Amino acid sequence: MKISTDEVLHVAQLARLEIEPAAMEKMATQVGTILDYINSLNQVDTEGVPPTSHAIALTNAFREDHPGEHLGPDKSLANAPEADAGAFIVPKVIE
Description:
Elements: H1 5-14, H2 24-42, H3 73-76, E1 83-84, E2 87-88
Antiparallel strand pairs: 1-2
Helix pairs in contact: 1-2
């Protein structure tokens, strides 16, 4: 599919891209090649093929979530550099 440099410039402006004038013809050729490939995919017979969102089946990689015991205040604060009254003491970050 032949794409003109004016069409490339129009799409570039819509996408707020700056394309050097020297690269316009090359870009038009490359976009045309990509659209030709996409058009060739439209010629493939997909009758009876169910639509998919992924090429391979996905499974959940996470373990089951089981409630357990939480850490008490003493264990939670055991390695804290500074603690006071059951809370972590951290440096002030907003002035």
